[in-house]
Design brief:
It comes from Drosophila busckii (Fruit fly). By secondary structure, the protein is of the alpha+beta class. 17% of the residues lie in helices and 43% in strands. Bound molecules: 2-acetamido-2-deoxy-beta-D-glucopyranose. 2-acetamido-2-deoxy-beta-D-glucopyranose binds next to strand 3 and strand 7.
């Protein structure tokens, strides 16, 4: 009983502080090229400093409209953090690009860039489409996990984010984050 109350209090405090029960750290960032052409460039992004913040720039070489462009996200988990990755069940199959940004960018990335001068990428909302071409900077971004799900696997999580047009891979990036219990 006592424990239940304590756990409840801890959860309540976290909720009030908008804090998740876990921390997320960037481990690795890798861009890859498309099959025959590359229209999204993430090769100038890196992790810097002790906090391993995300920093640098990325480019979209053309406007990306909802009919022609799709994004898929494959997720892999290594619970022991040893790099032995297993495919997770909640992949995002190829999804029209604007839908993907509205669903996933808005939940997982936008809260981290909306305070201060962290990125010049435009605010994504219901009306954002196409995803505009341009070169965008990211300055020392650390993930704000306030809108992330409560249940996430601990250990390493790898996301392979691939952009497609006409069914062809036109580039993307691989992000590995380390998720640990907050204490
Ligand atoms: C971080 O990224 C910004 C924007 O692209 C760049 O001007 C700056 O030199 C980068 N800092 C480091 C330490 O790489």
């Amino acid at each position: 009983m006592k424990w239940a109350v304590l756990i409840l209090c801890a959860q309540l405090l976290q909720y009030i502080a908008c804090e998740q029960s876990y921390t997320v750290q960037n481990e690795k960032l890798e861009s890859f090229e498309g099959d025959s052409e590359t229209l999204v460039l993430f090769d100038s992004l890196q992790t810097i400093g002790r906090e391993r913040a995300l920093n640098g720039s990325f480019s979209f070489l053309g406007d990306m409209d909802n009919d022609d462009f799709k994004v898929s996200v494959e997720l892999y988990s290594s619970p022991q953090g040893d790099g032995d990755f297993k495919r997770m069940v909640f992949d995002v199959p190829q999804t029209s690009i604007c839908e993907c940004f509205k669903k996933f960018y808005v939940q997982f990335v936008q809260p981290s860039v909306s305070n201060g001068d962290i990125s010049n990428f435009p605010m994504v909302d219901e009306d954002t489409c196409p995803i505009p071409k341009g070169e965008y900077y990211i300055k020392t971004l650390q993930f704000n996990t306030q809108d992330w799900p409560e249940q996430v696997p601990r250990g390493l999580v790898k996301a392979i984010i691939t952009f497609f047009t006409g069914g062809k891979n036109v580039g993307g990036l691989i992000v590995v984050v380390k998720i640990e219990d907050r204490n």
